[in-house]
C-alpha cells in the first residue's frame, strides 16, 4: 500500500494470496463431508456468474453486481444420494484483460459451470474459448455443465435459443441447463448435476481420488483441516479430497 491507500496491485495480491485470518471465521471443525470438490464458474463478464454463486451459497439475488476482478469464492456442503460433499466454488473474472489471471484458478478443478447470458449473443459466441481453456488447464476428468443464465428474460430479450445452445452442448459433450439467478430456477440443479456426475466417475473408477493423492487429510472431529479455506493456488492443489469416516451423513 502507498500512504494507506490500496492500489490495484495490492488488490490483485490480496485476491491471489488472501491472508489466512480472512477465512478463520468460516472454519467449522465439526463439518462432516466425504469429498471436497473444486468448482469453477466461467464465462464472459456480465453473464451473471457472481449472481449464480450468491444465489447458490447465500440464497439471495443481488442485482447490478460489479465485474469480478480475480475471483469470488464461496463454499457449500450438500448431500448427494447419501454422500456429503463440500463444494469450493471459484467465480472467475470474465473480462478479457483479467483472463490470464483467471486461468490461475483453473488448475485441478474437477467441476465447472460454463455460463453464457441468454440475452447476449456475444457471450454465447465466446463459449468455445472458455471451454478450451478449462479443458486444457483443469483436471483431465473435469465435468463441464453448459449454463444459459437469465432465463427470466428469455421471452422479452432472448438472443440465444434453447435449440442452438443444446446443439452446442451436444457437439461438445456437455450437459445443458438454463437458469435464472434472479428467481433461483435450476441454480441448485446445475451444481447438483455436476456433483452427481463427478461422484459417478469416482464410483466407476474413471476418477480415482487415491491416485490423485488426496485422501489422507482429516481431523479427529471429522472435517478436513482448513476445509472452509479456498484450496491453495498451486499446481498441486487438490481437485478432490476424500475423507473416510464413520459418519452416516
TrEMBL record:
Organism domain of life: Eukaryota
ATP-binding is among the record's keywords: no
Cited PROSITE patterns: RAB, RAS, RHO
The keyword GTP-binding is annotated on this UniProt entry: yes
Sorted UniProt keywords: GTP-binding, Nucleotide-binding
Pfam families with a match to the protein in the record: Ras (PF00071)
GO molecular function (one): GTPase activity
Protein family: Belongs to the small GTPase superfamily. Rab family.
Name used for this protein in its record: Ras family protein
Amino acid at each position: 500500500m502507498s500512504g494507506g491507500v490500496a492500489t490495484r496491485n495490492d488488490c490483485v495480491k490480496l485476491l491471489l494470496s488472501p491472508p489466512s485470518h480472512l477465512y478463520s471465521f468460516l472454519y467449522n471443525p465439526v463439518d462432516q463431508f466425504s469429498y471436497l470438490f473444486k468448482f469453477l464458474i466461467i464465462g464472459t463478464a456480465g453473464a451473471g456468474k457472481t449472481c449464480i454463486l450468491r444465489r447458490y451459497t447465500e440464497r439471495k439475488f443481488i442485482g447490478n453486481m460489479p465485474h469480478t476482478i480475480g475471483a469470488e469464492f464461496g463454499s457449500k456442503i450438500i448431500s448427494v444420494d447419501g454422500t456429503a460433499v463440500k463444494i469450493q466454488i471459484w467465480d472467475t473474472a470474465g473480462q478479457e484483460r483479467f483472463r490470464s489471471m483467471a486461468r490461475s484458478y483453473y488448475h485441478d478443478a474437477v467441476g465447472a459451470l460454463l455460463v453464457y447470458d441468454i440475452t447476449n449473443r456475444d457471450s454465447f459466441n465466446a463459449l468455445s474459448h472458455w471451454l478450451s481453456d478449462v479443458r486444457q488447464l483443469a483436471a483431465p476428468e473435469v465435468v463441464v455443465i453448459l449454463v444459459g443464465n437469465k432465463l427470466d428474460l428469455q421471452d422479452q430479450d432472448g438472443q440465444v435459443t434453447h435449440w442452438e445452445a443444446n446443439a452446442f452442448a451436444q457437439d461438445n459433450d456437455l450437459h445443458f441447463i438454463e437458469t435464472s439467478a434472479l428467481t433461483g430456477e435450476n441454480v441448485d440443479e446445475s451444481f447438483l448435476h455436476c456433483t452427481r456426475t463427478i461422484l459417478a466417475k469416482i464410483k466407476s473408477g474413471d476418477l480415482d481420488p487415491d491416485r490423485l493423492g488426496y485422501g489422507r487429510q482429516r481431523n479427529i472431529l471429522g472435517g478436513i483441516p482448513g476445509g472452509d479455506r479456498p484450496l491453495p493456488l498451486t499446481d498441486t492443489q487438490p481437485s478432490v479430497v476424500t475423507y473416510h469416516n464413520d459418519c452416516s451423513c
